[in-house]
Amino acid sequence: MKYVDEFRDPAAARALLREIATLVATLGASPARPIRLMEVCGGHTHSIFRYGIEGLLPKAIELIHGPGCPVCVLPMGRIDDAVAIAERPEVIFTTFGDALRVPGSKKSLMQAKADGADIRIVYSPIDALALARANPEREVVFFGLGFETTMPSTALTVLAAEREGTGNFSVFCNHITIVPTIKAILDSPDLKIDGFLGPGHVSMVIGTGPYEFVARHYRRPMVVAGFEPLDILQSIWMVLRQLAEGRAEIENQYARVVPAGGNGPALGAVAQVYELREFFEWRGLGSIDHSGIRFREPYARFDAERRFAVPSVSIADPKSCQCGEVLKGVLKPWQCKVFGAACTPETPVGALMVSSEGACAAYYRYAGARGNKLAEADAA
Amino acid sequence: MNDISPIAHPIARRRLGALSAQTVTLAHGGGGKAMKDLIDDVFVSAFDNPLLAPLDDQARIGLSDFSLHGNRLAFTTDSYVVDPLFFPGGDIGKLAVCGTVNDLAVGGAVPLYLSCAAIIEEGCPVDLLRRVARSMAAAAREAGVSIVTGDTKVVQRRACDKLFLTTSGVGAIPRGVDLAAGYARPGDAVLVNGVLGDHGATILAARGDLALDSPIASDCAPLNGLTAALLAACPGIRFMRDATRGGVATVLNEIAVAAGVEIVIDESTLPIREDVKGFCEILGLDPLYLANEGKLVAIVPAEDADAALAAMRAHPLGAEARLIGRVSERAESRVLMRTLFGGARIVDMLVGDQLPRIC
């Protein structure tokens, strides 16, 4: 496939892997004392598993799968709120597909749909707005999910609804922002990370500037990375090179998509429509200051939370679930008490088992129920 | 010799009822003249065969008809609820015939007779039914089977979605043919008869809510000609299965579990159209899990692989047949894929439906 196959070339991969091995040797890392790199974004986690990248890397590199899967970090209480809105008879609740199976405290949206709620999968908030236009007697609610990647499309849709005067459209806003969470991870005492692969699609919107603190205050290298397997290998190589040269900088491997200054019009729409919440709860990570957004006052009527007065009860994660430790890289997915036993993609206990971008689901799907058998798979 | 003499029964030439109504109403399910006219006009005229024409409660078929082809009966049933009813490359009628024919054929059977039960939502245009019935008749002709009995029900609006079809099929399994997933052995070759994922991608695109224009068409086709050729060329064949819902990944997992073997496939050998690949890239889908309606997976002994491939390639529905992997020496029930990129990963069973990723 044009413009895709070029980024999946095995020969180029072998060359990069040789250079990576050389750098790892230079750095004196070993499987006992590995270099720990976190890929922040769930899209990267998905690619790493899909292409079997972890098995190709030297054992002295440990990849930690970060919190960048917006579906995975959605707390149970928010799913309960979504279900409560969706179950109102006047509501058509629209959502991206992968939020359907995330467990709430009583049920998932998929179960609510089976129980009779009018829940429909859409591929864009624009589709939800079209539904609102076509069903003027109903209330159409869009489940706003995702980082800065999807934030602008929700903002622009709200602006379009305002412009055309569509009154029966609102957004249940669960958009979150990644930067405060990276800071929280860096401040976490039980975490030692040597470098980061920065999110590609988020950065396409916000640029590379917001990550400068990672290099300046925390002295950690970060490389904003693309999603094809060669992008990921090259980004790992760039982080290692910084480490070898004693540098800590924000570099941009994904320059073909990510402009240093981000996307001005997208940022403009986001700033016009949203403001930061004081705090937002993340599944597994707890409450993180300024990590969520909500509608500004002039757009309050598009805010489903205010329109439908949702219960907003905070629900603790199940005790057995160790998603938090896995998200922070303290535990590998297969080291979680319930991984592969009580928690499987069919019966997810934690959200990391739900989305294909969640580390646990990726391990389970691509490495099997025992999770840690990648090496064996590679040797086959 | 011929103990299916009812074929020549004079009732077979009775006058068929005709329908003047444009849409189906509950009256057409009432059991009276309206229903009889609907059945005659739409189904009997299209299916046009002497076993069906008497419209008795059952089709009566001589056993010799089966024993001519084999010594065991194969019997299968499947329901079809596809949305939309018409899509590039096929429609619910063609699907209902091919799907059931294929379920018989991959078991090694010669498909012979089908039934057709239709559940029709009131308000369904009669012309739509005629189109579907004609399509079923054409597919049955292509497959060399007869639709010999059937049923129609009309239900209230919203009790079903326009039209649901159920077809059952019977066929005969030739003496000596014995296929099972559990027969897969280390070293066996894994073959497919052509490009993967066309049907699944076509249906997703045809639903229209993706606003993607795509030139992809369903691969819906009766495979009994191909399976007969394969059985003739490769009598030692272990197993065949059509890779419908859940795609090739699901079939391979079923084989791995049934035989207690590991199957290793090679991503670089998977035949997938460029536009299906692109479609999957955009939506975050894996073509290995997309449905096919004219593709099968065959497990054959290593030494028969070339003959089996040649036989498939000589058939119009197998021109792009490929060897995509092997059964490995490991006694572990799983499917492994060597990625294009040089890595390896497990290809697991899908839990639910494939849900597109959001970012």
What can you see in these coordinates?
The complex is a heterodimer of chains A (380) and B (359). In chain A, the strands form four sheets. A five-stranded parallel beta sheet of chain A has the order 2-1-7-8-9. Chain A has 380 residues and is α/β, with parallel strands linked by helices. Helix content of chain A is 38%, strand content 16%. Chain A contains 16 helices and 13 strands. Mean pLDDT of chain A is 90; it is low at 372-380. Chain A has three domains: 5-67 and 180-199 and 207-252, 3-Layer(aba) Sandwich (Rossmann fold); 76-176 and 292-308, Rossmann fold, CATH 3.40.50; 323-379, no CATH class. Chain A has helices at residues 10-26, 42-50, 53-56, 76-86, 109-114, 125-134, 151-164, 179-187, 200-206, 212-216, 229-244, 264-273, 304-308, 323-327, 359-367, 374-379, and strands spanning 35-41, 61-68, 91-95, 119-121, 139-146, 169-175, 195-198, 222-224, 250-252, 274-276, 279-282, 286-289, 293-295. With 359 residues, chain B is of the alpha+beta class. Chain B has two domains: 5-173, 60s Ribosomal Protein L30, Chain: A (2-Layer Sandwich), CATH 3.30.1330; 181-346, Phosphoribosyl-aminoimidazole Synthetase, Chain A, domain 2. Chain B has nine helices and 13 strands. In chain B, the strands form three sheets. In chain B, strands 8-10-7-11-9-12-13 form a seven-stranded mixed beta sheet. In chain B, strands 1-6-4-5 form a four-stranded mixed beta sheet. In chain B, strands 2-3 form a two-stranded antiparallel sheet. The model of chain B is unreliable at 1-12 (pLDDT under 50). At the A-B interface, helix 1, helix 2, helix 3 and helix 15 of A face helix 8 and strand 13 of B.
